Automatic annotation (TrEMBL):
PANTHER family in the record: NOP2 YEAST -RELATED NOL1/NOP2/FMU SUN DOMAIN-CONTAINING, SAM-DEPENDENT MTASE RSMB_NOP-TYPE DOMAIN-CONTAINING PROTEIN
CDD domains: AdoMet_MTases (cd02440)
Keyword presence, Cytoplasm: no
Superkingdom of this protein's organism: Eukaryota
Keywords: Methyltransferase, RNA-binding, S-adenosyl-L-methionine, Transferase
Active site (record annotation): 340
The protein, known as: SAM-dependent MTase RsmB/NOP-type domain-containing protein
MF terms (GO), sorted A to Z: RNA binding; RNA methyltransferase activity
Residues noted as binding S-adenosyl-L-methionine in the record, renumbered to the chain: 278
Length: 409
């Protein structure tokens, strides 16, 4: 969720500061400089009332038992000297941001670990609510593309609002789809197939995507109503495209071209350069999330976090998301898997199982992580953040690359 503050500068201009309560990312509107979206990385400037509330949080016995079973230090949830969710960057203090970033890293580490380069085609497989998606778009600038996927349409709609509001969506497309089965690759490959599609029956009057608008054109609505009346209503497209920017490659394409499937060989060549799998989890490492259960009711926590069946279902989903994200990665590309859980079951265990079944996958050392206030996970090259070590909420990060097929694969 984003909050906003307006301030007057010495020059008399109004400076619009936007803060993310969920991620620690700060965007400074009214500036065309590269630091529009900067990673504030939860800079600590002293205790706050919200942090004091954490230290007084009455954790239920069932949750304490959950922590013991998973080998998690319960003092993580009672530390009063913790980190706020965002910083406020005063006008004229931009030069301090680099020092802050070099000192303290947090949830932005998952995006930083991707090492986004100019022109990359990036897949965000669990895109909602959209702060990391916006960070990737800002890093790419006017190059490459970002494909955001999420199974929850209302949450992905929040992403759409975000990228439009801050004018970051020109190179973005958003699909409502199951990230564990999503199969579309970057549009760069489709141009090679356009002539083939035309040859195989794409009609001249075939629907072509025009520049995106929130309201469907009258002719399109009339066609849909006619199909309903004649009983030819098509099933909802899966995946469902709910937004595309004018430079995302969608404009001018037909549905057949956009939703065509390609072979695994083509994916290895033309798949995504970078993939982010910030997987659904129990959120037990998110201090703010755990804090909310005091208002929601601890029985809700038992259902959402502590229920063994739900946890088992989540680890299966996490493995499927990681597997599918890796499938859509080109050879030589990078994938980052992250969760805000502190349990081994949702992190190292998922990674170990994935590596055992995918010989073309290799863990990488995360560049620059030696300066981050984090510790190594149970598996070498993986990283863990927590309130005691990092003075941030919990985060697990693992980075993979895809090797070319050889005797190992």
């Amino acid at each position: 969720m984003l909050t906003r503050e307006h301030r007057s500068t010495k020059a008399g201009k109004i400076e619009d500061l936007v803060f993310s309560n969920d991620t620690g990312f700060c965007r400074r509107n009214g500036s065309r400089r590269k630091e529009k979206w900067q990673t504030a990385f939860n800079f600590h400037q002293g205790n706050s009332k919200s942090m004091e509330a954490i230290s007084n949080l009455p954790l239920p016995d069932a949750f304490l038992e959950f922590l013991n079973e998973n080998g998690i230090d319960r003092s993580i949830y009672t530390a009063s000297d913790s980190t706020p969710r965002y910083i406020r960057l005063k006008p004229g203090c931009e030069e301090q941001l680099e020092a802050i970033e070099s000192d303290i890293k947090s949830s932005g580490a998952a995006v930083s670990a991707l090492n986004i380069s100019h022109g990359d085609h990036v897949l965000d497989l669990c895109a909602a609510p959209g702060a990391k998606l916006c960070m990737v778009l800002e890093l790419l600038g006017n190059s490459g593309s970002v494909t955001g996927v999420d199974v929850a349409k209302h949450r992905l709609a929040a992403c759409r609002t975000l990228v439009q509001k801050y004018k970051l969506g020109d190179h973005c497309r958003l699909f409502v789809a199951d990230g564990a089965s999503f199969s579309l690759i970057p549009i760069r490959v489709h141009s090679d197939f356009k002539s083939v599609n035309r040859e195989f029956g794409v009609k001249k009057d075939e629907f072509l995507y025009k520049e995106w608008t929130s309201r469907r054109p009258w002719k399109e609505r009339k066609r849909a109503n006619k199909e309903i009346k004649n009983g030819f209503l098509e099933l909802i497209q899966d995946p469902e495209l709910i937004y595309y920017g004018r430079c995302s490659g969608v404009v001018g394409m037909s549905k057949i071209e956009l939703f065509q499937t390609v072979s695994s060989h083509e994916i290895s060549q033309y798949g995504y350069d970078k993939v982010l799998v910030d997987a659904e989890c129990t959120h037990d490492g998110s201090i703010k999330h755990i804090q909310k259960f005091e208002n929601w009711g601890w029985s809700t926590m038992e259902r959402r976090v502590l229920d063994a069946e739900r946890t088992d279902d989540l680890t299966i989903l996490q493995f499927r998301l990681l597997t599918n994200g890796f499938k859509l990665l080109r050879v030589g590309g990078n994938l980052v898997y992250s969760t805000c859980s502190l349990t081994h079951a949702q992190n190292e265990d998922v990674v170990e199982r994935f590596l055992s079944l995918n010989p073309c996958a290799e863990l990488l050392v995360i560049d620059g992580s030696e300066s981050w206030p984090c510790k190594s996970g149970r598996i070498p090259k993986t990283l863990r953040f927590d309130p005691l070590t990092s003075r941030t909420s919990g985060l697990f990060v693992a980075k993979f690359t895809k090797l070319a097929k050889d005797n190992r694969c």
